[in-house]
Amino acid sequence: MNFSDSFFNKVEKKTSVDKDTILKLAKKLQDNDLKNEGTLREVIQELSKMTGKQISKDKEDKIINAVVNDKVPKDIDKFI
Question: Where are the domains of the chain?
Fold first, then answer.
């Protein structure tokens, strides 16, 4: 998947997370098993810290359930 600079600019504007940080996280995701609950929890917590937004245990569980069961939309650009 190839993202343009405008995509990264939109993300940074909404989250204050810069392109390099996003790319490092993407590399981490690419190198790990996204069906692994431990990996997913680690990534969710890291994103929470990056954005300064707290994620409840219930919401974290729902996110993990959605990812593990392939219920995540493939077109992420529409969310930004």
Answer: 5-70
d(CA 76, CA 80): 7
20: left (phi over 0), alpha (psi -120 to 50) or beta: alpha
pTM of the predicted model as reported, rounded to 2 decimal places: 0.65
Could you tell me how many residues make up the chain?
80
Asked if 60 and 37 count as a contact pair (C-beta separation under 8 A), the reply is no
Kindly give, in sequence order, each residue whose CB lies less than 8 Å from that of residue 57, ignoring residues fewer than 6 positions away: none
Give the pLDDT confidence of 17-57 residue by residue, as tens digits: 888 888 888 888 777 777 888 888 988 898 888 888 899 99
Q: Residue 77 gets which letter from DSSP?
A: G
Residue 43 corresponds to which tokens in the numbers above? Answer: 């990534």
